[in-house]
Design a protein that fits this description.
The protein is of the alpha/beta class. The chain has 2 domains: 186 residues, Alpha-Beta Barrel (TIM Barrel), CATH 3.20.20; 199 residues, Hypothetical protein af1432. The chain has 21 helices and 8 strands. Strands 1-2-3-4-5-6-7-8 form an 8-stranded mixed β-sheet. Helix 6 links the parallel strand 4 and strand 5. The longest helix has 25 residues. The radius of gyration is 23 Å and the shape is globular. It starts with 7 loop residues before the first helix and ends in a 5-residue tail after the last helix.
Length: 433
């Protein structure tokens, strides 16, 4: 996926309705911490941990320190726990802030710290980290790729660390295998980082690794003769039926009437505490009347896609997050366009989910031209929204000359999207009834 800088004018227009004026003080709160969770997956595609990455390229040192302190304060009030769903998480802090907040970190064993080889010369920091037994991930991605004995004087760090991360994209297959084996033999959990395409991922699969991290997860594999399996074809038929003939509440209920599992999950989700409805909805028809047909149809798509249990859960969550973000970023557009924006975000990973080219998958769906243009040609009204999301996912928005107020707006949208996506996925992933 090519990430280019977004059109700043389009981005400003999109966010204008919710962006404060230039004279408004920027206050960091729970609602808009500019942080992205980057998943590390084990060899079975299950979540091992998140890395919390920050959009902070344009922040002054004092503002960056404020951001980090605010983030650490969310440990106690539960915001971070909701963001990472109680899973293990790693983050990188400045040296001063790490020394200042080391007691907070020590009391949260599932929160780890990323350190660099340069820390080897900081005796005071190492003493404090050792004293409090903090969970450390030593990032070795900057080591010379051409050296067979790269660790040099890093023995004290290797002895303290629990995990190490290698730059799998910078190492050839032989060196990656050698270094991962050496580090694993020392009892360290090895994480392959910068796995940004499937060729690199193929080099990682046979190795003894704790986890793999990178953009490969969101990219479709190149398959010579792609075949849509019966389950995938059934899903596309459902999506097609939901699009054809503009079904109303009654027709919507009839379309999924025979899928008892999907109906059960969907009603469980809309009746959950997350939506805080004034009364319980007892049928898809009632839900469609209450929420609106278009919104309910979009949620059926989301629930159906999230039920694909042969794909990594974090990939499915990513599709849901994109859907919600697209819808929120389109708030300056018409209601119809907001609903189409949701579909655009949700389907932006359809080729990766279906293991087939986007053009092939979309040939089975009667989509609006605006959605198809964004997904296939990268054009039309929704393409800039997707571009913003791609850059946000990569942790690069702070380097695109976007105003800080807009970064904070994106942060709010992202945090809302993660909570919504996790809620929907939890219901879609239910196994027992």
């Amino acid at each position: 996926m090519h990430l280019s800088a977004p059109d700043e004018k389009l981005m400003s227009t999109t966010l204008a309705s919710t962006t404060p004026s230039d004279n408004t003080p920027i206050l960091l709160s729970d609602a808009h911490l500019p942080v992205v969770r980057s998943p590390m997956l084990d060899k079975n595609g299950q979540l091992f941990a998140y890395e919390l990455m920050f959009h902070r390229d344009d922040l002054e040192p004092d503002a960056e320190a404020q951001l980090m302190r605010r983030l650490l304060s969310t440990i106690t009030d539960g915001v971070m726990a909701r963001l990472v769903r109680g899973n293990r998480a790693f983050l990188r802090l400045s040296r001063d802030l790490l020394m200042e907040q080391i007691d907070v970190l020590a009391h949260h064993p599932r929160l780890g710290v990323i350190i660099d080889p340069t820390s080897i010369n900081d005796t005071a920091l190492l003493e404090q980290l050792a004293l409090r037994s903090c969970s450390l991930l030593l990032d070795l991605s900057e080591l010379d790729a051409n050296t067979d004995e790269p660790y040099g004087n890093l023995e004290p760090l290797l002895a303290m660390a629990k995990y190490v991360r290698l730059d799998a994209g910078a190492l050839d297959a032989r060196t990656l295998a050698l270094r991962s084996a050496q580090l694993h033999a020392r009892g360290l959990g090895v994480i392959a980082g910068f796995v940004d395409d499937h060729e690199i991922y193929s080099r990682c699969k046979p190795l003894t690794l704790q986890a793999v991290q990178g953009r490969y997860l969101l990219l479709p594999e190149e398959i010579v003769a792609p075949v849509l399996t019966p389950n995938r074809m059934n899903l596309l038929r459902l999506m097609n039926a939901l699009q054809e003939n503009n079904p109303g509440p009654v027709e919507l209920g009839e379309i999924i009437r025979d899928d008892a599992v999907l109906s059960y999950k969907l009603l469980g989700c809309v009746n959950s505490a997350y939506f805080a409805l004034p009364r319980q909805l007892k049928s898809i028809q009632q839900a469609a009347i209450f929420f609106g047909v278009a919104r309910m149809r979009n949620w059926i798509y989301a629930m159906a896609l999230s039920g694909m249990n042969d794909r990594p859960p974090e990939l499915l969550r990513a599709a849901l997050i994109r859907a919600h973000m697209c819808e929120k970023l389109a708030q300056g557009m018409s209601t119809n366009h907001q609903e189409m924006a949701f579909m655009t975000g949700l389907l932006s990973l359809l080729d990766t989910l279906m293991c087939a080219p986007m053009e092939l998958v979309l040939s089975h769906l009667p989509l609006a031209p605006e959605i198809r243009e964004a997904l296939v040609g990268g054009s039309g009204p929704f393409a800039p929204l997707l571009e913003q999301i791609y850059i946000w996912e990569a942790g690069e928005l702070g380097a695109t000359n976007v105003q800080p107020q807009n970064i904070l707006r994106m942060a709010t949208v992202y945090l809302e999207a993660t909570q919504w996506a996790d809620q929907v996925y939890n219901f879609a992933d239910q196994r027992a009834y």
